[in-house]
């Protein structure tokens, strides 16, 4: 078991536990919160497999419990689902000290987190991520989000959990494609902040990872610790530091948006985005040319693609990148790698360079 | 013009300007925020009278502006209206640095504030309250709220404005009943925190107030400063200090809920609640018996009632008070006056005392 602490301003902090057991969540939580009612929000099939374990553990620790189910999948990150969960919270008689627990992947965490942030002006919240992607990314850092028909995560709030509780056993039924989508984010952490992590990935592969719980815990704990460190220093994305977590993501979001979120998983798009960011780094002088084949090779090694499967409308890609909510007062901003293990934000990238990069990744 | 500062943790603070002019908001704002797009959210008839002035001032200060109208009245504090305002924000192309300005009474401020708190995980927000009640209460302190069919303000967020801008001229068309509803909150501030303010009210009346802009500014500035001071020390209502602002409000909310929000304005219910709280203070030993006729006399002096117009179902009143979201893990909690000029929270008030008080106010 591996513990990181996410420290925030005004003395707020919380634990991130990697390698915990779901059955022990109730006991751990009883030391962290004062309320004694808990609503677990989850989606099938995770709910069917694990909700009972969580609920039982909560009850033995003295909590009154309820289960609120929601449909999974990005298409359900809607205000309609949020409103349904408010009703669940009300009928479970949650008050301002009660706890809302998200048990599931990123969609469940984002939506349940938004409900926790806004029910009675915010109640305590716990993240139990059950996918590799949610473990290394969405569950850490306090971003919650809901989609509007016009775009992803246009509604949301910053709302930090009281605890992030990761049970590796929940990954045992994860499909390979979902493993890879999580790996893409881990590659990102190596590239932006941890050269040794990058090298660890260069010397291993998915088959090895799935056989070694110890190795898996190491990768997740190191990734979560990097994110926790960055978020500690720039919770609300005001200094530009937190923005470096978006390495590869401006490309990735555009690819996902223009392809209608059907062709690529988030991590598949991020992998392509990382290859693009490496090339952009070369163009703006922050990344060595020799790093490009190295990034491509690592992405390939873990079963991910370095370029899009088929071309998408380039004007649409450019428009999506300009609309990306990381853009401020118009203008292209990107995160680029600075060698392997560092990254920084560059603003005002000329459109002709952006187009050259898009061509390189098949767009 | 009178300036208070609301200071919060982590160095956050903002000005509360009493006696400002709407036409100068744009210029003032240009020194406070970095974005240059602004959406003004308002409702008729205020929008019809004043929106143009605000928009013009914003444009001369270099802002690109848009106006988003919403229907006024508590029945429109809904998630449906929130979603409509998200669309307004999107079509005005607001980004994360853009400003949302609430121009109106408490309903507009609560709903627009929630939109500002949750659009793109929160954007800068300005309160321009145009009713006496919103000036002395809702616009200061960062509470935003939306109703669910099950109850008031069950959804919301804490979201502090960058600026609170009060133009007394907007009160010139306020109906007398709305003046009185604001006065009830000012009486509350006197009772809970400012004996001299209480005495000032004892020596004046509504006719005098409406003729003296100077006196009006004094009352509003003192009330806003009290609220700002309390909120500075307990922004998220965790220490119990902020809860003292709810003097009279547990009774008031129950009266409003059970009478379906039709018979009493918020302030009318608060006035009755203050008379009840004075009596409860006597019962629990914090308030002198001689204070009760004094509170009753002040409430009456300003054209407010000391008791309900007609009886309401007592079981329903008790149930509503138990459900009040200030209650934690069940049990009756009340704020009681400690003499004139102080207040404190008392927990576990026995039901028979509560019933005795209800009878005193006609319930």
In short:
In chain A, 46% of the residues lie in helices and 17% in strands. Chain A is built from 14 helices and 11 strands.
Overall description:
The structure is a homodimer of 363-residue chains. Chain A is of the alpha/beta class and 363 residues long. Chain A has helices at residues 25-30, 46-60, 79-91, 106-118, 132-138, 176-193, 195-202, 206-211, 213-233, 249-258, 266-284, 291-301, 314-323, 351-360; strands at 2-7, 13-18, 37-42, 64-69, 99-104, 125-129, 143-148, 151-158, 163-166, 333-337, 343-347. A seven-stranded mixed beta sheet of chain A has the order 1-2-9-6-5-3-4, sandwiched between helices. A two-stranded antiparallel sheet of chain A has the order 7-8. In chain A, α10 (249-258) crosses α11, α11 (266-284) packs antiparallel against α12 and α11 (266-284) packs across α14. The first copy, chain A, starts with a strand and ends with a helix. At the A-B interface, α3, α4, β7 and β8 of A face α3, α4, β7 and β8 of B.
């Amino acid at each position: 078991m591996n513990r990181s602490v996410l420290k925030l301003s005004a003395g707020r902090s919380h634990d991130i536990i990697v390698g915990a057991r779901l059955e022990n969540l109730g006991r751990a939580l009883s030391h962290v919160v004062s309320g004694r009612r808990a609503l677990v929000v989850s989606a099938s099939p995770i709910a069917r497999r694990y909700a009972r374990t969580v609920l039982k553990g909560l009850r033995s620790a003295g909590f009154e419990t309820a289960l609120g189910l929601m449909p999974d999948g990005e298409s359900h990150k809607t205000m309609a689902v949020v409103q349904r969960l408010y009703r669940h919270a009300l009928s479970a008689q949650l008050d301002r000290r009660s706890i809302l627990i998200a048990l599931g992947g990123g969609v469940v965490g984002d939506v349940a987190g938004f409900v926790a942030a806004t029910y009675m002006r915010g109640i305590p919240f716990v993240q139990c991520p059950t996918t590799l992607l949610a473990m290394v990314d969405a569950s850490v850092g306090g971003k919650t989000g809901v989609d509007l028909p016009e775009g992803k995560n246009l509604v949301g709030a910053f709302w930090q959990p009281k605890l992030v509780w990761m049970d590796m056993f929940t990954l045992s039924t994860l499909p390979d494609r979902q493993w890879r989508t999580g790996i893409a984010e881990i590659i990102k952490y190596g590239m932006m902040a941890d050269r040794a992590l990058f090298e660890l990935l260069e010397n291993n592969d998915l088959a090895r990872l799935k056989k070694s719980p110890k190795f898996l815990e190491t990768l997740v704990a190191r990734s979560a610790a990097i994110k926790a460190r960055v978020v500690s220093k720039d919770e609300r994305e005001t200094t530009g530091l937190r923005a470096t977590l978006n390495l590869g993501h401006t490309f990735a979001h555009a690819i996902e948006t223009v392809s209608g979120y059907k062709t690529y998983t988030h991590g598949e798009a991020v992998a392509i985005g990382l290859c693009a960011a490496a090339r952009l780094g070369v163009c703006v002088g922050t990344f060595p040319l020799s790093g490009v084949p190295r990034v491509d090779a690592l992405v390939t090694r873990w079963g991910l693609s370095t370029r899009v499967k088929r071309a998408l409308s380039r004007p649409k890609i450019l428009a999506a990148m300009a609309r990306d909510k990381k853009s401020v007062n118009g203008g292209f901003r990107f995160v680029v790698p600075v060698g392997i293990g560092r990254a920084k934000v560059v603003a005002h990238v000329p459109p002709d360079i952006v187009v050259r990069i898009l061509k390189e990744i098949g767009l």
